[in-house]
Amino acid sequence: QPPASPSMPPPPPPPLLAFLPLNVASARRDPHLALAHGGRADFKGEDGAVYNLLSAKNLSFAAEFEFADFVLPHKLVKGSFMRTVYIVARSWCASSSTSYCKGWGGSSRLLHIEFNATHPAGTAHRALLREHGKPDILVGGEGAHIDNVFIQTRSHQQATSLVVNTGMWRLGITAKHFPNPTANPGKMLLHVDVAAEYDADHDEVAPHGLIGQSYDGDGVAVDGAQDDYRKGGSAMETKAQAEGAIEGSAEDYRMSKEPFSTSFRFSRFDAVRAAHRDINALTGARNVRRTPSLPAPNRQRGNDKKNSYPHAGDFGAF
Questions:
Q1: If 201 and its partner were Cys, which of 20, 147, 217, 314 is the partner (CB 3.0–4.6 Å)?
Q2: Which DSSP category does 274 fall into?
Q3: Which residue range is the domain that position 57 belongs to?
Q4: Cβ neighbours, 10 Å, residue 75
Q5: pLDDT above 80 (res 19)
Q6: pTM of the entire structure?
């Protein structure tokens, strides 16, 4: 059972920047990390372990990993993939006069969102929304709008996507078939996108997590360990855990057995102030690259229409 919502709201977040382009990072397939500012790394998670991808003020985004064999055209890869994501979002509204927060009573709500790579046959692929003291909700294409948090799933082609938008962070999670699907029948995995809709690089509560820490304000790409798929003959086993591009080790990002926990070594969920990582302590190769970006987000949310928020399909195909 998720913990009770806090009785007092947290401090307001930093102001949004209306014309700041989105800074997008991602984790896909085995998984390969594309970090903020252009860094690259691979990360093999332990079987059944949950790791934090993004920890920010009032938001925690974690993924459960599973070992798997990837049958590729010319190679068998023994690696891992993300099978379930766990999102904890604490809602916040500056005032009840904001149209998309009408009815704001001054108390935050603690939301727990779960989305899996697979779903039972004959059912729609939806996200599960839990809140203490309220019935569970399966969120589909109609979406759910709770204070500043918008949640929606959408099916497109042979994939289903979830988007969670807090107004500061936009998370996109897509359930897709394994690569080379004919040789991997019925196998599904998750791809994730993380997009900052505000100046996360200069937040006084610097984000963290395997992906989140790369919003470190320096504009420099830091590459971590990557597996070489050209070696190993007809079979190989992945080993890289983003060494060189992350603070500490993979174990520092592992969550407790409670998947909706927000606690780990670098947690920012309840932080009042937290410094960016020390890039000088990282051992990965550094480059100045063009930061991936999308057009500036639509800030016109006063009409309370669902299309005032990005839909799940806005992340496109992977």
A1: 217
A2: B
A3: 22-300
A4: 15
A5: no
A6: 0.83
